[in-house]
Design goal:
binds zinc ion, 4-stranded antiparallel sheet, globular, 5 helices
Length: 208
C-alpha cells in the first residue's frame, strides 16, 4: 500500500512538475548555459533539458513548439538519468547486434518506478517507457507514457551525458537508492517503490 501511495505521490509530483513548470523548464534552460537544453531531433524539435521542482531535478525529453516546452514528452528523475548512463554500453551492444541483423535482440533494463529502456529486433529505435502490472498478474505491460528515440537521437542523447550532468547540482556525487544503507537488507530493498514498484507483497516467497 505504501508503495502504491509513494508511486501515486511520485506521479503527482511529475505531473505537477510538468504542468506548473513548463515555463520553469524554459526559464532554467535559458538562464543556465545553453548546454542545459540540447536538441535531439531537428525535424520534430525534441530537446533534452533540465528543470527543478521541490528540490528534485528532472531531465526532460520533450517536444518544443514556438520556443516553449509542450506536454508531449517524458520527465526522468536523476536516478533514471543515471541508470540510462549505466546501461548505455549494454544498450550499444544490443543496438549493434540488431543492426547486424540479429533477430533475437530483446533488451530491457529497469530504470526505476517501472520505467524501462528497451531495444528489440524488428523495432529500430530505443524505447524509454513506463510499464505497469495489471492487478492479479505478475507480467509487466507497456503504457502509453514513453518516448521513442531513433538511433540517431539516442546517439545525440549519449553525446549529451556530460553536458546535462553538469546542469544537475552534485550529480557527480549521485548514488542510486539501491546503494544506500536502507537497501542493505532484503525487506528494505523490496519495499522501495523505485526498485520494486509492484510492491514487496508480490515477492513474499523471497523473504523466507
Ligand atoms: Zn530503491
Amino acid at each position: 500500500m505504501a508503495t502504491q501511495k509513494n508511486d501515486k505521490k511520485f506521479r503527482l509530483n511529475i505531473k505537477k512538475a510538468v504542468k506548473q513548470n513548463l515555463s520553469e523548464i524554459k526559464k532554467l534552460s535559458e538562464s543556465k548555459s545553453n548546454t542545459c537544453k540540447i536538441e535531439l531531433n531537428g525535424d520534430k524539435n525534441i530537446f533534452l533539458s533540465v528543470s527543478s521542482f521541490n528540490g528534485q531535478h528532472y531531465i526532460h525529453i520533450r517536444s518544443w513548439k514556438d520556443g516553449k516546452p509542450t506536454k508531449d514528452g517524458i520527465s526522468l528523475t536523476e536516478q533514471m538519468w543515471w541508470e540510462i548512463q549505466r546501461y548505455s554500453s549494454e544498450l550499444d551492444d544490443n543496438i549493434l547486434q540488431l543492426q547486424q541483423g540479429n533477430q533475437d535482440v530483446n533488451y530491457k533494463s529497469h530504470l526505476g518506478k517501472n520505467w524501462h529502456i528497451c531495444v528489440q529486433s524488428g523495432y529500430p529505435f530505443v524505447n524509454i517507457r513506463r510499464y505497469w502490472t495489471p492487478p492479479g498478474t505478475i507480467n509487466i505491460h507497456p503504457t502509453k507514457q514513453g518516448q521513442i528515440l531513433s538511433f540517431e537521437m539516442y546517439n545525440r542523447l549519449k553525446d549529451s551525458f556530460i553536458d546535462i550532468n553538469k546542469c544537475i547540482p552534485d550529480f557527480d556525487q549521485f548514488q542510486p537508492c539501491y546503494m544506500q544503507i536502507d537497501h542493505a537488507n532484503v525487506l528494505g530493498a523490496l519495499s522501495c517503490s523505485t526498485c520494486n514498484p509492484t510492491g514487496y507483497k508480490d515477492h513474499t516467497d523471497l523473504l523466507v
